[in-house]
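ligand=F0G
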Amino acid sequence: MQSAALQKCIEPKCGLEYPIFDIRIECDRGHLLDIKYKNIPSTLLKDAFYKRRNHANNIFNESGVWRFRELLNFCQIDTENFEECSKYLVSLDGSEGRLSKPYHMSKVSDYVGLKNLWLQPEGYNPSGSFKDNGMSTAVTHAKLVKIKKIICASTGNTSASAAMYAANENIECDVYIPSGEVAPGKLGQAFQFGAQVIEIKGNFDDALSASLLKANEVGGYTVNSVNPFRIEGQKTIMFRALEHLDWNPPDWIVYPGGALGNTSSCGKSLMELYEWGWIKKIPRIAVVNSEGANTLYTLYNGKFEDTKLRWNKGKPDVEIIKKYYTYMDKNGIRPKTKATAIQIAKPANILKGLRALEFTNGVVTQVSDQEMMDGMALVGLNGFDCEMASGAVPAGVKKLIAEEIIKKDDIVVGILTGRQKDASIPVDYHKNSQNKFANPPRT
Ligand code: F0G
């Protein structure tokens, strides 16, 4: 296997490089890593990717991740050779990314006041969230470096996905979760797929610190989005959206923001596609935070010490981030939202997220729990299913339109990140006739 890919520190002034086979989530100076490719993939592949949808029983063509394998070929495999692919690539029988593509949802469009709104339900992945896109690639790398056990912290979806892929590949999986803060459907999946659940007293940030510490102690393999191979798989969310639009980028791409893995992977996919000449226009990213867990919103928009935090061409003001985290710790400010998936105060990928926002001239907004629930309910009225954190997307789009940041004739792609895994949220919502889209029962 030759190496035309490597791991490289994201900070331009550092730029340390490591082989693909190294197991690490940061460079020796503590910065996040990117996977870098030496060869430029030909745009002729656009046709090949499309044709693979008629997959002829090849699960790597059927998979909405591995269909795009030449754009994330960190294994440097012979991409047309089925035997080669099956030796290296991890797939849940071709199911990751297979059903997710942009759809028009007329009731959401009418509500937010936007004709050209596409919503991509990443909940239609095998474990029920976008995480499977990145888990198939992270576990591929784990297998490549002969790992027998993976480890993660999670608000629920990462652990469900990690546990599912680990079970399917017959490797062990430890998941660190904030006790009492994970939707029952997600927790049930981790148990059901045979993972070892470790409950942490605290929030997701505490669980992540504990799991990273453990991984460091025992040389464990972390599959959180700080793993650069996770980010590679999640680029395919954007590839599927762009393919559906004939590789003509929309004006906006909208994500809920938590640990900012998605924002990072979206940014990386756009940076690469632009550099490789696959796209001529750069869409703008809009990240939607929950009001109760709004670190990125606060720092990006200068709501803390009047400093607008930016990537600043690779020279971000990391001191302001540290200062804000200390301020939160000192004042007992804890993230609090019913959308537990994004109940995160210290987004581990904040620097990559900032880089993505700078490259795309992005914006960050925030919405309330009520707005997210309304968004979630409305997606349901179109016959699609999403969880409350994903409801941040319609809610955020509506807000940005009202602020005239998104214009009414803009083309917008919103990513609905996960399926409903806490039935009590829609049940309580619909039973309360005060809610905007309530559908209360009759007795
Ligand atoms: N939406 C859902 C449904 C999620 O589960 C998450 C993150 C996000 C959005 C935020 O995405 O971190 O890429 O900004 N869930 C993680 C987990 C943290 O552990 O399942 P992000």
